[in-house]
Amino acid sequence: MKAIVLAGGFATRLRPISYAIPKLLFPILGKPMVYWTLDLLRECGVVEAVLGVNYLADSLRATVGDNYRGIRIKYSLEDKPLGTAGPIKLASNFIRLRDTFVAMNGDVIAQINLTQMRKHHQNSTAAVTDALHEVRNPSRFGVVQLDSARRIERFVEKPTLKEAPSRMINAGIYMIEPSVLNMIRPEHRVSLEREIFPILAKRRRLFGFPFQGYWFDIGSFSDYQRANFALLAKQGPRTIIRHEASRAAAQSRLLSPLLLGEGSIVEKAATLGPKALLGKHCRIMKRARVTGSILFDRVTVGIGSTVSGAIVASDVSVGDKVKIEPGTVISSHVQIHDGARIRRNAIIHPHREVATDVRSGAQIM
Questions:
Q1: DSSP state, 29?
Q2: How far separated are the first and last CA of the chain, in Å rounded?
């Protein structure tokens, strides 16, 4: 089994953190997003994968390398945006695709049995089988209408609620026959959903594979928080995940669920949780509190400070008696001085020094 992973997006809705780190390296439950994808592919026997990359490709390659747990990794670089089908065509130049292969969006976290999906695909007349997931509001996605044989009769991209033929959406995971590559113009921007799928639906060669497991599409900061906290909750409401060499003082308070990353420290009288995820080598100092927040690596929270409902990227120093309110996003390499108050929904860009209070909704650029 071989795979193509679409990893070339610019992650504009995850700026300013994504200015410095590609979306696929954002941690999900302490593990970079790309590894969730590769682990899923590994479970169904994928031995070779091409990552279709563009923005911050060097960072992704430096982290993942050429082999991940037995999967050979290759890279296909887009010089210009090619839509959703164009990168699959381009990536096919780097891998020999003679049989059914899997293609998927790299920013999808899903619990799906790809082995069963492949069997369903090969037992049908499908040229493409699309993984499908039911959601409450399908208007952000491609929505399908299935017949009794799970054949997709209609595919409507981002309809209004009234126009949506169902609540079953394209989950961004596909089983594809190599013949489909002939339908994609090389070096052109081509949409899989708008240009290829409607043709296959008319030919009755587009099938669906509904699945019930969890599914998260990481498109925005709210999506990112929801995925992390939902996956943390699935570990159990009393779960405290502590990695190697992490340390919590006897007088600290650890309120589940939480994740304490490798080498991270919680000092005396500090409180961590509930719903807190710390990356590697973070330090929560005396009487500080972190709740409902995601901290990347090497974040220090000073004495008596509070971080609530925030996302804090790597290499951030929060001074003493700082108050960070919900909805705040702090990019990497930021220093916040003692006593500052960062009000709700503020955004701080990379490499900034914050010496005074920041008003609600402000951007420090």
A1: T
A2: 46
Take residue 325 and report the two structure tokens written for it: 């309110």
Task: Report the relative pairing of strands 265-266 and 353-354 from DSSP bridges.
Answer: unpaired
pLDDT in tens, 218-248: 989 999 999 999 999 888 777 888 887 899 9
Domain boundary among the residues 191, 218, 245 is at 218
CA 162 remoteness from chain centre: 29
Give the gyration radius of the chain's Cα atoms.
22
Say how far apart CA 188 and CA 357 lie, in whole Å.
48
* 198: number of Cβ within 10 Å: 17
How much is the pTM?
A: 0.90
DSSP state of 194: I
Choose one of 165, 187, 218: the last residue of a domain. Answer: 218
Residue 360 structure tokens = 């609600």
- Asked if residue 275 and residue 177 are part of one domain, the reply reads no
Give the CATH number, domain containing residue 15: 3.90.550.10
**Domain extent at residue 342:** 235-364
Residue 149 has pLDDT above 90, yes or no: no
Q: Do 9 and 339 contact (CB within 8 A), yes or no?
A: no
Cα–Cα distance for residue pair 327/52, rounded to 1 Å? 32
CB atoms within 10 A of CB 226: 13
- Regarding whether 159 and 22 lie in a shared domain, the answer is yes
Compute the distance between CA of residue 281 and CA of residue 276 in angstroms, rounded to an integer: 15
Q: What is the pLDDT of residue 16?
A: 94
* Whole-angstrom distance, CA of residue 103 vs CA of residue 106: 9
Residue 230 within any structural domain of the chain: no
DSSP 303: T
From the number of C-beta atoms within 10 Å of its C-beta (0-12, 13-18, 19+), residue 145 rates as middle
Nearest to residue 79, comparing CAs of 90, 67, 63?
90
Distance (Å, whole) CA 140 – CA 353: 37
The burial class, CB within 10 Å (0-12 / 13-18 / 19+), for 96 is exposed
Percent of the chain residues topping a pLDDT of 90: 66
